[in-house]
Design brief:
By secondary structure, the protein is α+β, with helices and mostly antiparallel strands. About 40% of the residues lie in helices and about 20% in strands. It has 2 domains: about 35 residues; about 170 residues, 3-Layer(aba) Sandwich (Glutaredoxin), CATH 3.40.30.10. The protein is built from 6 helices and 11 strands. Helix 3 runs parallel beside helix 6. The radius of gyration is 25 Å and the shape is globular. The N and C termini lie far apart (about 60 Å).
C-alpha cells in the first residue's frame, strides 16, 4: 500500500512538473505571439558585401504646401507619414480617398508623431491657394495633413518613386488615371506599407499598422 502511494505521489509529482513545463512553454509562446509584428521594408533593396541590406528610401524632394512653404525630407524627418496622390477636380476615386483619409485624420488627431501628405497630380489647376481652400473645405488641421504642389515633372516622378501609378489620359474622367493606394513611410524615408485608399479594409489595415511602426521608435 505504501509502495503504491509512493508511486502515485511520484507520478503526481512528475505530472505536475510536466504540467508546469507545458504551461511555461505556452506562456512563452503566447508572449512571443503577443509581441508587436514588425512591418516589412518594401521596394527595391540592395544587399551589400557584409550581408546587410540597404533598404529602399524615397529620394530627395522639395515641394510647396498649401501655405506656399517648402516641404522636404527635413520637414518630415521626425515623423512617420501616410502619403497619397490626388487632384481636386477628380470625379472618380479622389472623393472616396478624401473621405477615408478624413477617418485616418480623425483617428490620429491627437498623435503628433504622424503626418498625412497629399500630392496634387494637377499642378496647373491645383495651385497652393486652391489646395488651401480645398483643405479648408475639408475642415482639417493642415499642420497634420498637408497638401503639396510642384512642377508636373517633379510630381509624377515622385509618384513613381512611391510606386504609385499616375498618367494623363483623356479617356478617363478628369483626364488623369492614377492609383488610389496610400503609402506608409517611416522617419528615414523607407516605404513600410501599401493600402487600398478607396476600401474600408485598407483603412483598417493602415490604422492597425501605424501603432506598430510607432512602436519601433519607442524601443
Amino acid at each position: 500500500m505504501q509502495n503504491h502511494l509512493k508511486q502515485i505521489i511520484s507520478l503526481s509529482f512528475m505530472f505536475q512538473r510536466k504540467q508546469v513545463f507545458i504551461i511555461s512553454l505556452l506562456t512563452l509562446f503566447l508572449s512571443l505571439s503577443a509581441c508587436e509584428k514588425k512591418l516589412r521594408y518594401l521596394g527595391r533593396h540592395d544587399v551589400i558585401a557584409e550581408g546587410d541590406t540597404n533598404y529602399y528610401k524615397i529620394p530627395d524632394f522639395s515641394f510647396l504646401n498649401q501655405d506656399s512653404l517648402v516641404v522636404d525630407q527635413k520637414t518630415l524627418s521626425n515623423y512617420i507619414y501616410v502619403t497619397d496622390f490626388f487632384f481636386t477636380k477628380c470625379p472618380s476615386i479622389c472623393p472616396i480617398m478624401a473621405q477615408n483619409l478624413l477617418i485616418v485624420h480623425e483617428a490620429l488627431k491627437d498623435e503628433a508623431r504622424v503626418k498625412i501628405v497629399s500630392h496634387t497630380l494637377d499642378p496647373a489647376y491645383d495651385t497652393p491657394s486652391v489646395l488651401k481652400k480645398y483643405a479648408f473645405n475639408l475642415g482639417i488641421d493642415t499642420k497634420q495633413w498637408m497638401f503639396l504642389w510642384g512642377s508636373k515633372d517633379s510630381i509624377y516622378d515622385i509618384a513613381e518613386r512611391y510606386y504609385i501609378a499616375a498618367v494623363e489620359d483623356d479617356e478617363v474622367p478628369g483626364g488623369i488615371n492614377h492609383s488610389g493606394k496610400l503609402v506608409l513611410v517611416d522617419r528615414e524615408g523607407h516605404v513600410r506599407g501599401f493600402y487600398e485608399g478607396t476600401k474600408e479594409y485598407g483603412i483598417e489595415e493602415l490604422l492597425k499598422d501605424i501603432p506598430v511602426l510607432l512602436k519601433e521608435y519607442e524601443n
